[in-house]
Specification:
The complex is a heterodimer. Chain A is built from six helices and 17 strands. By secondary structure, chain A is of the alpha+beta class. Chain A folds into two domains: 2-13 and 173-309, Alpha-Beta Plaits; 18-170, Alpha-Beta Plaits. In chain A, a hairpin with an 8-residue loop joins strand 13 (218-220) and strand 14. Chain B has a 13-stranded mixed sheet. The chains are: A alpha+beta, B alpha/beta. The interface between A and B is medium-sized, with 17 and 18 residues.
């Protein structure tokens, strides 16, 4: 199979079931909403060493947010509802409560895209949001119920910080991926940037690595005891002559795009859109092939076969 | 009662007969619940007894009864003689063409009541959930406790498009009580929590004895003279106030048709904040946890 003359490996991406929370951060203007969202989703590339995997899902206009202000939707992925709850409390407490003009709301399950039979049951579980953060108000906090939603108003020096009482952790998918092998690093980076840009416009997915791109994909385990992950040697161009490589003989650079999504179709669609974007554009003649990362199929429940994704 | 269950309820329209129009005495409206009437066949509805004055009459003597295609809807003519219409109803829609009477929707648990006219006192008394919309004005103590109940409105929404009488929201504990027009004396008397919106005028002693909760006064002229002794000695002036939560509140009021301007515009304008009630009550009881927010010019 080829996409715009780039060969697509007959391989699959192996992804995992994780729980996710969607939050909406609003602010007085898009700049402050973006600042808060970036802060809240920082240090959240991989669950290997971060408490969550998180990223910006989409930018929201005034008519898409609960308080009619510009907003950003973020997704945070964790293994359990409890781990997410603890992380969210810290992240929102330190990065958003402190950030000028912001407010935080449950993002609900809206913006979902079509579902497939591969999807995990969403099984929403309640997660405390303002319910615990309210104690920062030292007794001066106030709650207000709007229909079924309860918000907390926490007095702060700027005025009041508004945060919804609860959010929900639903079942999603983390670790969808594809790898871009290129003849030269510049072309590979351009292709990866195009892929991330295209995916960033899609609902229900995030690319949690820096700039959406991972240059250091990892395999499970290490020769060193206690290390959970180590360099993905099969895709390291500099190790082509030393290991059982998956690199093309001409490959000088490999970038991985890792996709977390709210359901199977979201990840599949993002993979398809990303691969197409990577294979078409400036320098795409230097893209040698598109591969996928997996662990032999024994670890992750969700398999995204590249040829099926693109069909 | 879930929505699918509501879809199984029959809908009826009652048309007033002379015995209703010319009769006297209070009519006990508590049997007129769309969720209960809707379970009955037309024949059963006709034979259902209702008290008018000292008599218990079958409904067919007071009303002509028509079946409706709309599921779970009960349409009835109005009368100020009604008492406790829709009492404890849990689902469906009750539409009153005319006066809704007193104690309308008392202890209501769900569903909707729409009154195309005025209503008497104690609208939504001790209601728990659901919504009541009055297109006209209401009497005293809307959202107050019913009978021996300690708490007034304990959830749900009461929307009054006209004016409301004295002690609106007395001992209210939860929910939204919005009055598009003016309120009589002491709205929010003993307010425990929840939100009261007053669209027009400058009510006397709002929030007297309030414990928590919010009273939002939307008339820009209410605070014409900041030096005047208003809202009253029971409040402390907190000065000008801006808060993002007002956006949420005004958006909700806009959805209920309570505003004449865009909610974002109003929320961005100046408001004055008063905390209350600060008058001494029991020793050790925290004071000033309630708030009166007044839109100012």
């Amino acid at each position: 199979m080829q996409v715009h003359s780039t060969p697509i490996d007959d391989d699959f991406a192996e992804a995992f079931g994780m729980r996710y929370v969607r939050l909406i951060i609003t602010a007085a203007n898009p700049n402050w909403a973006t600042i808060a969202a970036r802060e809240a989703t920082g240090f959240a590339s991989s669950i290997i060493a971060c408490d969550v995997e998180a990223g910006i899902e989409s930018t929201l206009t005034e008519d898409q947010t609960p308080d009619g202000r510009p907003g950003i939707s973020i997704l945070l992925f964790g293994f359990t509802k409890d781990s997410l709850e603890g992380s969210i409390l810290k992240r929102i407490g330190q990065c958003v409560l402190t950030c000028a003009t912001t407010a935080v709301f449950d993002g609900g399950s809206s913006m979902e895209i079509s579902k497939s039979e591969h999807d995990p049951e969403p099984d929403p579980q309640e997660v405390s949001l303002g319910e615990k953060l309210r104690f920062f108000g030292d007794g001066y906090q106030k709650s207000k119920a709007f229909e079924e939603q309860r918000i907390w108003r926490i007095p702060v020096m700027e005025g009041e910080f508004v945060i919804q009482d609860k959010t929900h952790a639903r079942r999603g998918i983390a670790g969808g991926n594809f790898l871009i092998q290129s003849k030269c690093p510049q072309a590979g980076l351009l292709a990866a940037e195009r892929a991330v840009e295209a995916i960033s416009n899609l609902p229900g997915v995030i690319t949690p690595f820096p700039g959406g791109i991972a240059r250091s994909g990892s395999k499970v385990g290490s020769k060193y005891e206690g290390l959970k992950a180590s360099t993905y040697d099969a895709f390291c161009p500099s190790l082509k002559s030393r290991v059982e490589t998956k690199c093309d003989p001409e490959t000088q650079c490999v970038y991985e795009i890792i996709i977390n999504g709210v359901n199977y179709e979201a990840v599949r669609n993002a993979s398809r859109v990303g691969i197409h974007a990577a294979c078409e554009g400036e320098g795409s003649e230097n893209i040698l092939r598109i591969s996928a990362g997996n662990y032999g199929g024994n670890l992750g429940k969700f398999h995204f076969k590249l040829h099926e994704v693109l069909s | 009662m879930s929505q699918p269950e509501v879809q199984n309820l029959n809908g009826y329209r009652f048309i007033a007969k002379d015995a209703f129009l010319q009769g006297g005495g209070i009519i006990d409206g508590d049997v007129l619940r769309p969720d209960e009437i809707g379970k009955l066949t037309p024949k059963e509805v006709q034979e259902l007894l209702i008290r008018q004055g000292r008599e218990r009459l079958p409904l067919k003597e007071l009303f002509e009864i028509e079946e409706l295609d709309s599921k779970g809807v009960l349409e009835i003519p109005g009368s100020p003689r009604f008492k406790t219409l829709g009492m404890k109803m849990e689902a469906g829609q009750l539409v009153v063409h005319g006066h809704g009477g007193g104690f309308l929707g008392q202890e209501m648990k769900g569903g909707e009541i729409l009154v195309q006219g005025d209503a008497g006192s104690h609208v939504g008394a001790s209601m728990i959930s659901g919504s009541i919309r009055i297109e006209g004005s209401v009497g005293d103590r809307a959202g107050a406790p019913s009978g021996s109940n300690k708490y007034g409105q304990n959830g749900g929404k009461i929307i009054i498009e006209g004016d409301a009488g004295d002690e609106t929201g007395f001992n209210m504990r939860r929910g939204l009580l919005a009055v598009k027009g003016e309120c009589g004396k002491v709205p929010g008397y003993g307010l425990l929590a929840g939100t009261i919106y007053i669209g027009k005028g400058r009510p006397t002693l709002p929030g007297l004895g309030m414990v928590r909760g919010t009273i939002l006064i939307g008339d820009k002229d209410a605070q014409a003279d900041p030096e005047a002794d208003w809202p009253g000695a029971h409040t402390n002036d907190g000065g000008l106030f801006t808060a993002n939560f007002l956006r949420l509140l005004y958006r909700m009021l806009d959805q209920e048709g309570c505003l004449e301007e865009k909610p974002e515009v109003i929320a961005g304008q100046a408001h004055r904040f008063y905390s209350g009630d600060h008058l001494p009550k029991k020793p050790g009881q925290p004071m000033g946890r309630g708030e009166i927010i007044v839109r100012v010019k």
